[in-house]
Amino acid sequence: MHVQINRNTVVEMKDRISELEHRLKDAEGTFSDIEKIDILNELAWEYRNVKPQYALELSKETLRLSNFFNYQRGLAYAMRSLATSMHSLGQYDEALEKSSEAANLLEMIEDYEGQGEALNVMGNAFLNLGQYADALEIYSRVILLFQQLGKIDGEARALNNIGVVYGDLGDYSNAIDYHFKSLELSRKCEDSYLESVSFLNLGYTNKLLGDYNTALTHYLKSLELKEKVGDKIGIASVLNGLADIYSALGNYQPAIETYLKALKISEEYENKTGIASAISGLGETHLKSGEMEKAVYYFTHAVEITTKLGDLILRTNALLGLGRLLLSQERFDEALAQFNAAEALSEKTQSLDSIMRISQNLAECYEKKRDYEKALRYFRKFHNAEKETFTQESRQKVKMQSISFQLEQSQRNSEFERSRNEELQNAYRELHTLHETLEAADKLKAQLVQQLEKQAREDGLTNLYNRRHLDLLLTQEFSRTNRHNRNLTLAICDIDHFKKINDRFSHQIGDEVIRTVASIFKETCRAGDLVGRYGGEEFVIIFPETPPDKAAVACEKIRVAIESYEWRKIHPELKVTISVGLCGDTTVPNHEKMLSIADAKLYQAKNSGRNQVIP
Questions:
Q1: pLDDT at position 546
Q2: What is the pLDDT of residue 239?
Q3: 3 state SS of 403
Q4: CA-CA distances (angstroms) from residue 207 to 29, 108, 243, 250?
Q5: Of 263, 240, 278, 270, which is closest to residue 85 (Cα–Cα)?
Q6: What's the rounded Cα separation, in Å, for the pair 198 and 587?
Q7: Three-state SS for 490?
Q8: How far is CA 21 from the centre of its chain?
Q9: Could you report the per-residue pLDDT of 195-216, keeping only the tens digit for each?
Q10: Distance (Å, rounded) from C-alpha 541 to C-alpha 563?
Q11: Packed helices 292-309 and 312-328: angle between N→C axes, nearest 10 degrees
């Protein structure tokens, strides 16, 4: 995942904690109440990322003491530590509220650097809640504030976090640009911690782009810097990223070993987000490698961890992972239980991305159970969420364009104060980058629309038409055929004994059989024929302008091609055949009746010994 920055550096953090704890212990009873509050506040601030639960308890105690003694400075700092600890623990709504209060209190006592830190946490909370435009607006305020204070490190943190915003929105070009800006400023102020985070986020973004070599280079550089500064939690984040790459490349054993290292460190430092990431990664990797029992264990563990963490998005993802695993094993009722639990959480978070993914999985599950009414309902829910996503993105884009303009303006003003000539050069570069970004954004939008349209009509396993799109095509062809009094034949094809194939050879082999049969359909069917996966091991072929006798000849050709295919390439003992039923009667009331007739012919073929075509 992308890493947001809440702190300056961890180089001397342990020494600072040790010093504060000794001061508190050695001077017990000699400090004034105000001095004790100040030490407790410093201690909570140092612990906020390494032991957030302990920092939370310290902050609450310091908040109580500050209120009791009416100590405004102590109250402001306690509120800031409280907000940061809550964010580290995944309590984003509470962190948002407390960081806003902390920013106001710190402004009142004229601690503008502290106010910038509190605003940074506020931006991070907005980001984790998916309110990207609000996050960008807060980060731009942070940049302006730190520019006025001449704090390059604070500006670098905010630039990094803006990169995270763009990364989460899928605008990887802008994300990489801002992470490099953050990296440049980190090097100027010689802050190895900030530099390590920039490299970590560059690695993550390039991983999402599929550029694993570049991602690996950035991750290794980040790891080197994090080991230098002793950032153990950061090391765990890098290890999780490296493990993701190994898993994506199919290097499952190195991936598992690296996830386990990340898990050990995260558990040692009570970093529940890191724990959840490592465990979820282990579940996905074991699922890919076919180790189902271990995959079930880790996904179940991920659900338990994310439930304790209170992060609804992470818990939703864990439930989805477990549900997908159970679905792949055709344990439909158990899979539905996980998907329904995830759906209940998505209603709370109102995450359209989660709603889309959950609805898609529920539709697939009900389709495989042959409960087509519910499958259709969830297909509709998926597409409604898809439309709403585009609407929200459009609204957010308008707001973000305005904020981005203000952000670029503040950056130009700051650079002008540093150097007029440098400002002119930077302004030219920024305009050029903006032009390229707009072009890239338009290209990305076109690609996204194309991808969504493809997903809406194609089956994910075979890349044939899916049932929904095939029904649409059949409706159109039936209407056209009747309007012009032309021929139309459709065929329903079913893989013989497919359940036995799954049971005997595994579901992975079963999926490979379905993909291979689909490929044979593509190679054997004519250019004008329309073929799609209708559900499970069932396929439908539409033969426009074709009478039943010629369609039967085409189907026989397909049947022979499948029977004679060298299935031993997939498994030495594997044999596959299909049965086919046809209907060319266009005098029936509708295309559903044609399907019904073809389905009856299919069952006739099955009952007559299979591996045959019944016209």
A1: 93
A2: 93
A3: helix
A4: 54, 43, 11, 14
A5: 270
A6: 67
A7: strand
A8: 41
A9: 998 999 899 888 888 888 898 8
A10: 18
A11: 160
* Secondary structure (DSSP) of 291-329: -HHHHHHHHHHHHHHHHHHT-HHHHHHHHHHHHHHHHHT
Residue 13: the pLDDT is: 47
Amino acid at 357: R
pTM of the full structure: 0.54
DSSP string, 161-194: HHHHHHHHTT-HHHHHHHHHHHHHHHHHTT-HHH
Residue from 195, 304, 537, 538 carrying the catalytic annotation:
537
Side chain identity, residue 115: Q
Helix (H, G, I), strand (E, B) or coil at 583: strand
Between helix 507-524 and helix 548-563 the angle, nearest 10°, is 130
Which helix (H) or strand (E) segment holds residue 339: the answer is helix 332-349
- First-to-last C-alpha distance (Å) of the chain: 55
**Helix-strand-coil split of the chain, %, nearest 5:** 75, 5, 20
> Which of 194, 186, 177 lies closest to 426 in space, CA to CA?
177
User: Which residue in the block uniquely carries the two structure tokens 């029977």?
Assistant: 563
Radius of gyration over every alpha carbon of the chain, rounded to an integer in angstroms: 30
pLDDT tens profile 307-335: 776 666 677 878 888 888 888 888 888 88
Name the pairing type of β-strands 578-583 and 488-495: antiparallel
Q: Which residue has the tokens 């291979």?
A: 516
Residue 110 annotated to the active site? no
Q: Which two tokens stand for residue 383?
A: 């597409």
**pLDDT number for residue 90:** 74
State how far the Cα of 5 lies from the Cα of 10, in Å rounded to an integer: 12
Structure tokens at 500: 């036995």
Asked if 486 and 528 count as a contact pair (C-beta separation under 8 A), the reply is no
Looking at residue 590, its amino acid is N
Residue 164 is predicted with a pLDDT of 84
What's residue 287's pLDDT? 83
How many whole angstroms separate alpha carbon 430 and alpha carbon 407? 12
Using CB atoms within 10 Å of the CB of residue 26, give its burial: 0 to 12 exposed, 13 to 18 middle, 19+ buried. Answer: exposed
pLDDT at 510 (0 to 100): 93
Ranges of the chain whose pLDDT falls below 70: 1-31, 49-50, 170, 309-313, 349-352, 389-442, 444-453, 455-456
Query: Can you state the angle between helices 92-108 and 112-128, rounded to 10 degrees?
Result: 160
As given in the structure block, the two tokens for residue 13 are 């953090």
Separation between Cα atoms, residue 451 and residue 61, nearest integer Å: 52
Cα–Cα distance for residue pair 168/184, rounded to 1 Å: 22
Rounded distance between C-alpha atoms, residue 205 and residue 163, angstroms: 10
Rounded Cα–Cα distance for residues 239 and 245 (Å): 10
**Angstrom distance (rounded) from CA 565 to CA 560:** 8
Sheet strands side by side (includes 613-614): 530-535, 538-544, 488-495, 578-583, 613-614
Instruction: Give the amino acid at 244.
Output: D
Distance CA(545)–CA(541), nearest Å, equals: 13
- Residue of 459, 568, 598, 454 whose CA lies nearest to 519: 459
* Number of CB atoms found within 10 A of residue 597's CB: 18
